[in-house]
């Protein structure tokens, strides 16, 4: 099992070593991923739980309430689409 796994890893390592243009393209891919996951997250997705609650107990209570809160009205058998 380990033998074929090491062959696969060696195949990709050797292929990556012999690349010229590919290394630049992979660098661009990693820079884009960094921008997407690090910078965009910080700018557009603030940590609302840290801002709105003082401690972990309040945060966990809020999350539990949101996950278990059901506000779905189920129509009776004779009703269609919730109308009478």
What would you say this structure looks like, in words?
It is a single chain. This protein is mostly helical and 84 residues long. It has one domain (2-68). Helices cover 69% and strands 0% of the residues. The protein has four helices and no strands. The longest helix has 24 residues, at 21-44. It is elongated. The N and C termini lie far apart (65 Å). The mean pLDDT is 83.
Q: What structural keywords apply?
A:
84 residues, mainly alpha, elongated, single chain, 4 helices
Brief summary of the model shown:
The chain is mostly helical.
Give the CA-CA distance, first to last residue: 65 Å
Mean of residue pLDDT values: 83
Major sheet summary line: none
What is the beta-strand fraction?
A: under 5%
* Low-confidence spans: none
Give Rg in angstroms. 26 Å
> Helix and strand succession?
HHHH
- The computed structural class is mainly alpha
**Strand elements, count:** 0
Q: Helix proportion of residues, in percent?
A: 55-70%
Task: Report the principal-axis shape.
Answer: elongated
Number of helical stretches of at least 4 residues: 4
Structural domain tally: 1
Give the secondary structure arrangement, pairings included.
Layout: H1 2-17, H2 21-44, H3 48-52, H4 56-68
């Amino acid at each position: 099992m380990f033998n074929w796994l090491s062959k696969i890893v060696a195949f990709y390592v050797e292929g990556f070593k012999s690349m010229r243009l590919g290394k630049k393209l992979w660098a661009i891919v990693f820079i884009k991923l960094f921008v997407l996951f690090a910078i965009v997250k910080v700018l557009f997705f603030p940590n609302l739980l840290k801002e709105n609650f003082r401690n972990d107990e309040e945060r966990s209570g809020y999350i539990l309430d949101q996950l278990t809160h059901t506000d779905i009205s189920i129509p009776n058998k004779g009703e269609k689409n919730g109308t009478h």
